[in-house]
Every structure is written in C-alpha cells, then in structure tokens.
Amino acid sequence: MSESKIRLTTPTRLVLDVLMASSADDPVWGYRICELSGLGSGTVYPILERLEEAGWIEGKWEAEGPDDRPRRRFYEVTGTGRQEYADAKAEAIRRKRRWLPAALLH
Description:
The chain is mainly alpha-helical. The protein has one domain: Winged helix-like DNA-binding domain superfamily/Winged helix DNA-binding domain (Arc Repressor Mutant, subunit A), CATH 1.10.10. The chain has four helices and three strands; from the N terminus they run αβααββα. The protein has a three-stranded antiparallel sheet with strand order 1-3-2. The protein is elongated. The mean pLDDT is 89.
C-alpha cells in the first residue's frame, strides 16, 4: 500500500460514490461500477487501480463464478478510504466557501 495522493476528479468521485453506496451484502465489481457511474471501463479500471494502490479500496476475487461468466473482482472502500474521502470532500467545501460571497452562504 502506497501513500499516493488521490486527485478527486469528477470520474473518481463518481466511482467512489458508487463504492460508498455498496455494502458487503451487495458488493460491486468493475462492470457494475461502470454501469452505475455511467463511465467506461477505460476510465473506471485505472481509477480502481489507483484507489487500490493508495489503500482507499480493497479488491477481492469471488471464490468461484458460474460457468457462464468469468469470476468477478469485488471492491469495497477501506476505513482509510472512507476517512480520506470524507476529509477531501470537507476540504473542497471549505475551499468553495472561501470564494463564495457571504450572501450565498446563508
């Protein structure tokens, strides 16, 4: 696990939002993340790789898939990922508030 910084681009936020909404009872896999985020596989899989390398998510292969399809790699957000994403969103809100006129903040 590396300590690389994750840039929260719109596609990265979309992928993280899908992952945050999933549960251990209903895990998501790469193609499903593509469907739910509206992003293509050429965008989603590199994001998943970066997030996994940074320790924000963890991927696990299913034990055995049906004969009619390959095994799926399920992804879930780690505790570190949840905290880092929450911190990054809070920082983005703080930065945005600095630039908004006071009248718009009420």
